[in-house]
Design a protein that fits this description.
Blueprint lengths: L1 H31 L11 H12 L6 H14 L6 E3 L1 H12 L1 E4 L2 E6 L2 E7 L4 H5 L6 E5 L2 E2 L7 H8 L6 E7 L6 E7 L1 E4 L3 E8 L2 E6 L7 H14 L4 E5 L8 H9 L7 E6 L6 E4 L10 E6 L6 H11 L4 E4 L7 E7 L5 E10 L15 H7 L15 E3 L5 E3 L8 E2 L10 H8 L2 H12 L1 H4 L5 H9 L3 H10 L7 H6 L1 H17 L4 H5 L4 H11 L5 H5 L10
Parallel strand pairs: 11-12, 12-15, 15-16, 16-21
Antiparallel strand pairs: 1-18, 2-9, 3-4, 4-5, 5-6, 5-7, 7-8, 10-11, 13-14, 13-18, 17-18, 19-20
Helix pairs in contact: 7-8, 8-9, 12-17, 14-17
Organism: Azobacteroides pseudotrichonymphae genomovar. CFP2
Pfam families: PDZ_6 (PF17820), Peptidase_S41 (PF03572)
Keywords: Hydrolase, Membrane, Protease, Serine protease, Transmembrane, Transmembrane helix
Length: 545
């Protein structure tokens, strides 16, 4: 009997130990495996964050971990979907809208000092008495004349709510005395139509710079009305280096050139209802010739303009193959003030083609520069992606817009690695400010860019900028300097002229004797950009293989 009790006791202890062991093992196993039995693809992220928060050995800033994880997830989708943190969203939205609260100056970080390059006429800065060449020592209560000042910090300090006041400490004319100004922020238009002018009698030129905003269409129409008043009936719209942006402006611009009931663009996606944009027939440029200039950077909204004009046989496209971005992003706001800008649809131009060119995200830049399909009148095309324009011309999808006339030999084709180093180190802007500052009294006498340009051409500008670059980390390379001399000079001249005469004066100087523009003018002179001439492909007479 005693033996039986002992045996029962031992069995009970063993059984109890096994049960406790199993429970502990399951508990540890469950924790180490992230409670796998209860995970789904949708709650795994939250479970992992919860475990990190409760059990990681050191304290964790969960906001930083979450932000980093979201950034990584979104970046893995495609090159165009992005996560925008709450502290960056305001400026991002302002850039898309084309308006922000500011004082109306163009500034530059020059030798660890914020300098005013020029002052916009009629702005609050102009009314307060700020001048080009002024050095900003402090903004409100923060010193801005020291090492460590970044462009991001300067922009954040200068921008703000419309109607709010800004306190600036200014040094002027090399004086150590600080003058204090109080300047009220006003609504500032961040212009995208940087320049428009009559480039030849009856021909208007419009440069839409690096992006489209929601205000680009209004800026475009302002330029058109001015050019029409000068008697312009044909137009060159330069979309080179324009990465796209707001689709609504692109659609409205195309509408001005088309007769009624013509498809401009349509879009569709998994959860995106099919959207078709059709011309309303009220455009004021239906009888005008138009040439669109594009290059390998022209993307998105730029491609909608060029592609719709091409597919409707409405005008000529001249330049290089465009970038090839056929996707639409939608901005989704989150409750903490951040946002996701997510690819939600593909767009298609009237022929039915989607222009999207596939890239590897990490090799995007290299692929753009090495892809030979961007260049030449014998550009690489895929016959399986052949489509047809309104009147039957063959066009191709899947690789951006292939222009009607390729023209690689632009001023930009003379850009050596030396020139690109000058751009990368911001030498042009820095040199132009120093030269302008040293010669301000002389250059202030010129009231138009033509006379100032003639004066500058007589000065040793090339020698001066090469020496300036050498003193600022760009070694002299004589062969490359000679190769790009014309464009180095044009760029330097343009920056100097714009310091005194504003952004409007930059492009007439920078694009002086641009062979792509010369080709566009020739096409317009011959009437090759009228619809009937485009349909019959008379422009082929201009193609030089």
């Amino acid at each position: 009997m005693e033996l039986k009790k002992r045996v029962c006791l031992v069995l009970s202890l063993v059984t109890g130990s096994l049960i406790i062991g199993i429970i502990i093992g399951n508990f540890i196993s469950g924790r180490s495996l992230g409670r796998k039995l209860f995970l789904t693809p949708y709650n795994k992220f939250n479970v992992v964050l919860d475990i990190l928060s409760k059990e990681y050995v050191d304290p964790i800033r969960m906001k930083d971990v979450t932000e980093s994880a979201i950034l990584h997830i979104i970046n893995e989708l495609d090159p165009y979907s992005i996560y925008i943190p709450s502290e960056e969203l305001k400026q991002f939205d302002e850039d898309m809208e084309g308006y922000f609260g500011g004082i109306g100056i163009n500034h530059l970080l020059f030798k660890d000092t914020v300098v005013i390059v020029n002052v916009i006429k009629g702005s609050s800065a102009s009314q307060a008495g700020l001048l080009p060449g002024d050095r900003i020592v402090y903004i409100n209560d923060s010193i801005f004349a020291s090492n460590g000042i970044t462009e991001e910090k300067v922009v954040k300090a200068l921008r703000g709510g419309i109607g709010t006041c800004l306190k600036l400490g200014i040094c002027r004319n090399s004086s150590d005395q600080i003058i204090e100004f109080r300047v009220k922020r006003k609504n500032i238009l961040s212009t995208t139509v940087k320049s428009f002018y009559e480039i030849e009698k009856g021909i208007g030129f419009i440069k839409i710079c690096d992006r489209f905003t929601h205000s680009t269409y209004n800026e475009f129409m302002h330029a058109i009305m001015n050019l029409l008043s000068l008697g312009c009936k044909s137009f060159i719209v330069d979309l080179r280096m324009n990465r796209g942006g707001a689709y609504d402006s692109a659609i409205k611009i195309v509408n001005e050139f088309l007769p009624g009931n013509k498809v401009i663009v349509y879009a569709k996606g998994k959860s995106f209802p099919r959207m078709v944009s059709v011309s309303n027939g009220n455009g004021i440029l239906q009888n005008s010739q138009v040439v669109i200039l594009i290059d390998k950077i022209s993307a998105s909204a730029s491609e909608i303009v060029a592609g719709s004009i091409q597919d409707n046989d409405r005008g000529l496209i001249i330049g290089q193959c465009s970038f090839g971005k056929g996707l639409i992003q939608n901005q989704i706001g989150l409750s903490d003030g951040s946002a996701i800008r997510l690819t939600v649809a593909r767009y298609y131009i009237p022929s039915g083609r989607n222009l999207h060119r596939e890239y590897e995200l990490k090799k995007l830049g290299d692929q753009i520069h090495s892809d030979k399909s961007y260049y030449g009148n014998n550009a690489k095309v895929d016959s399986t992606f052949v489509y047809h324009t309104l009147h039957g011309r063959s066009v191709y999808g899947g690789r951006g817009i292939i222009p009607d006339i390729f023209f690689l030999s632009s001023n930009a084709s003379r850009l050596s690695s030396y020139y690109l180093d000058l751009e990368k180190k911001n030498i042009f802007n820095q040199f132009a400010f120093e030269y302008s500052d040293e010669n301000r009294s002389m250059l202030n006498q010129f009231k138009d860019y033509s006379s100032m340009l003639e004066y500058l051409k007589k000065q040793p500008i090339l020698e001066k900028i090469v020496n300036f670059a050498s003193n600022n980390g760009v070694k002299k390379r004589i062969l490359l300097i000679n190769y790009s001399a014309t464009q180095i000079l044009n760029t330097a001249y343009a920056w100097i002229v714009s310091n005194f005469l504003g952004d409007d004066a930059f492009y007439p100087v920078y694009l002086n004797n641009d062979p792509v523009i010369i080709q566009a003018i020739e096409a317009l002179r011959k009437g090759y950009a009228y619809p009937e001439a485009v349909e019959t492909m008379k422009y082929k007479e201009l193609i030089r293989y």
